Fold:
Amino acid sequence: MRTRAYMTWIRTVPLTEADEKLRQAIEGEKLFYPKEYAEPVHPDPSGASSIVGSHTLIPEALYHAFSTFGALMSPELPLQRRQHEMIATMVSVTNRCVY
Structure:
């Protein structure tokens, strides 16, 4: 018996259609991220990261969720960058995420 994988569809707002509030949220959260995160690894059709795109309907949540992650990756914290990446990778693997 073969099982099918189903993907939930979430309406997103492409950057080309973003209002000022959404643009500010996206640009603001990017300020917290290491420079290596400037370009999305798996961009959606608009060129943005698809995981960020899934939060575009609620700009405040987008800003706070991704700013938190960026703050947790801060080089001022006692963990080294490779340790941060190991933790993030294990969380993604545990959650079966591809990003």
Summary: The radius of gyration is 15 Å. Residues 15-94 form one domain. The chain is about 45% helix and 0% strand.
